[in-house]
Design a protein that fits this description.
Elements lengths: L1 H12 L2 H10 L1 H14 L6 H25 L5 H40 L5 H8 L3 H13 L7 E3 L4 E3 L2 H12 L2 E5 L6 E5 L4 E2 L6 E2 L1
Antiparallel strand pairs: 1-2, 3-4, 5-6
Helix pairs in contact: 2-3, 3-4, 3-5, 4-5, 6-7
Length: 209
């Protein structure tokens, strides 16, 4: 019950309404809440896109404000300050979005190598991604802290990322015992066989795979 109320508080604090309110009341807090909202929202498939879109909107608002305030004859210190803050905040969000995009691509490569290809050696992962060992290790530690690989850990002595045995076996069994439909070339009958294995047609006995 306590966790539920805590989640409600978090969702209320990082809601877009609260963020917009803080952007007008105290811009730095609003900007911080945007960073946290994008980082914590696991339903967002492409957080870097949101960061860059918001960043460009801020840059547009800030640039327009800077041009209008500096071209105006009246001295509007508050307006100039707000415009500059939007401009700086927008540039910061764009840079962060680019970094998030690069990070997301690296994480996708790691997942494909570890889960799909069963590669556990950090040296081999580093070689496959053209990164150095320390970069890969640092990234994987971040992924582990965010529960990308539940129950996995890095073995320092062997330099490997080790998945739970049940998950590794399940991944292997799924790939090794997956059944697919195949049409026999000899008699044209439909057969269900295990992928990657040579079998016999149930009707004419011809080899199929």
């Amino acid at each position: 019950m306590e966790n539920g109320s805590e989640n409600q508080k978090l969702s209320a604090l990082y809601s877009w309404w609260a963020i917009i309110l803080f952007l007008f009341l105290f811009f730095p807090i609003g900007l911080y809440l945007i960073f946290k909202r994008i980082s914590l929202d696991k339903k967002t498939l492409y957080p870097y896109s949101i960061a860059k879109v918001i960043g460009w909107i801020f840059v547009f608002i800030g640039s327009t404000g800077v041009i209008s305030t500096y071209s105006s004859t009246s001295q509007n210190f508050v307006g100039k300050t707000a415009a500059i803050m939007f401009l700086i905040g927008g540039i910061t969000l764009i840079i962060w979005g680019v970094k998030l995009q690069k990070q997301s691509l690296r994480y996708s490569k790691y997942s494909a190598l570890i889960i799909d290809q069963n590669i556990s050696s950090l040296d081999n992962i580093a070689s496959a991604t053209s990164l150095n060992y320390d970069e890969v290790k640092k990234d994987l530690q971040k992924m582990l802290s965010k529960n990308y690989f539940i129950g996995a850990y890095i073995n320092e002595s062997s330099g490997e990322i080790l998945l739970p045995k049940s998950k590794a076996n399940r991944t292997y069994n799924q790939s090794s015992s997956e059944k697919v439909p195949i049409v026999c070339k000899s008699c044209g009958a439909n057969n269900i066989v295990i992928a990657g294995r040579v079998s016999e047609c149930e009707y004419c006995g011809s080899p199929i795979n």
